[in-house]
Amino acid sequence: MSPLLTVEKVEAAYGVSPALFGVSLSVGEGEAVALMGRNGMGKTTMVKTICGLLPRTAGRVEVAGRDTKGLAPHRVARLGIGLVPEGRRCFAPLTVEENLITAARPGHWDFSTVSELFPRLAERRRQTARTLSGGEQQMLAIGRALMTNPRLLILDEATEGLAPAIRQEIWRSLHKLKTEGLAILVIDKSLTELSTLVDRYVIIEKGEDVWKGKPAELTAEIAARHLGVAG
Amino acid sequence: MRSDMIFTLAAMAALLAAGLYGYLGDEPFFLTLAAKAAIFALAGAGLNIALGYGGLVSLGHAAFFGIGGYAAGILASHARNYEPLMSWPVELAGTTSAPLIWIVAMLAAGLFSLPMGLLSLRTGGVYFIMITLAFAQMLYYFAVSWPAYGGEDGLSFYVRNELGGLSTMDPWSWFLICYAILAVALVFIAVLTRSRFGLALTMARENPLRLGNIGVAPRRVLLTAFVISAIVTGLAGALYADLNRFVSPSMLSWHMSGEIMVFVILGGVGRLGGPVAGACVFILLEQVLGGFTEYWQFLLGVALIVIVLMGSGGLAGLFERTGVRKAAAHG
């Protein structure tokens, strides 16, 4: 069976400035993969290209065996991709509940199952998204993506800039999602937390994938070279 | 949300009170003004769907207002002259039945708005304003140069169209008809904006890309809103033609588009009761200031600038803010 998401030698550009020079990665059913790299190396560009927000200039992106070439973002989303965008981007004037139900598509995830995962969202259901704390907005963004009942959840810097306690809550929820069998592609910088969640790492540098492997195979030397951190 | 409801009910109550005053005081001119305000409010409520909820700044809504007006005028004039609208392939007669005319007016406005919206929504911002303006101007010049229905002189039809056994020429009955239609339209818009479609429309205004990411096509949502908006404004146009028993290209001109936009901005963009308050205040200013000076629109302009500078949401916004302040003072 083909993987849920296949990215093959993808190139993309912002106008005339190329940003990706041939990235390949894949995520299988129920698998969790981390996309890593320093700032400005093309992680978010990769996500935009997968979601149809940025046209690719070469290569292939397949979601559930279907080439996404020329598909509008909403078509890609309906193939089963739930995006939790960088910077959260909840719909500020709408309430928590309104943010969630507009995204709803039939399946396991509905308002009650999302409330079980994030009880705070149920507590704040009538509050507008702009009055939520950063962590709550992040939960809302994840909840909104889950309401589309995706087969693959993509998280772009979901724990960035949050208080440690909230980060732990987000990580716990991701572990729960993974054990329930949801495929996850996560962009993050917290190696410690990633190492227990994901099955594989993909590191990109200057728009190319430079290292792939299991968390155990990531040596301190590789981490220092490509990520600039002590592994 | 609750303040919006109170404001809407207050504006509607004020309009009804104005009508009652005209009826009890036996002032038919006052009643006609109240009916005109109700019709303008309906036209503004239509534009508000696109402008307020969807963020689509359309300067072309006179097109729909005028199409509604011409639909009423053309059908009625054919019926009165006993000329069929067309004789091939089937013979189609005109009509003076108001409900039928309303349906035709709404259909015609909706049908015109579909290709117009499809093309206009490919653009955004200033370009959207200009292309909607261009469509309306196209129609305006077409009406001016088409002699069959009066061309530049317009088309008059002496008697209002019929609704059951009601005497539509009686100003009180006519006001009540317009008022009832406005009320039904506002209920419809209130339900629409609270539905999933309405939420998606707000999201399309806020951030179309993010709406795409959750699997909803933003352009389709906006196009649907644009068409619904046109249909409501088209209905208002049919009523306006009936009110004056006259339709002319001026209903299609960009001044009209601007006026409809003034109702919305004056009353409150994206507020249910905004267009009602805006249209009432507009008519009031027109009558009161118009009594002092021919150049009353200069003063309208000043009022508009002051209201816009005082913050978003027009009169409805002012009402919200004073409400909040009072609640804060009491709490």
TrEMBL record, chain A:
Source superkingdom: Bacteria
Record bears the keyword rRNA processing: no
InterPro entries, alphabetized: AAA+_ATPase, ABC_transporter-like_ATP-bd, ABC_transporter-like_CS, BCAA_Transport_ATP-bd_LivF, P-loop_NTPase
Residue stretches making up the ABC transporter domain: 5-231
One Pfam family from the record: ABC_tran
GO biological process, one term: L-amino acid transport
Record keywords: Amino-acid transport, ATP-binding, Nucleotide-binding, Transport
The keyword Nucleotide-binding belongs to this UniProt entry's keyword annotation: yes
Similarity field: Belongs to the ABC transporter superfamily.
Protein name as annotated: ABC transporter ATP-binding protein
UniProtKB/TrEMBL annotation, chain B:
Pfam families: BPD_transp_2
Keyword set includes Heme: no
CDD domains from the UniProt entry: TM_PBP1_LivM_like
UniProt organism field: Pseudohoeflea suaedae
Molecular function terms, GO-annotated: branched-chain amino acid transmembrane transporter activity
Protein name: Branched-chain amino acid ABC transporter permease
Keywords for the protein's UniProt record, in alphabetical order: Cell membrane, Membrane, Transmembrane, Transmembrane helix
A GO CC annotation given for this chain: plasma membrane
Compartments it resides in: Cell membrane
Membrane topology: Multi-pass membrane protein
Spans through the membrane: 32-51, 58-79, 99-119, 126-149, 172-193, 221-240, 260-285, 297-319
Domain of life, source organism: Bacteria
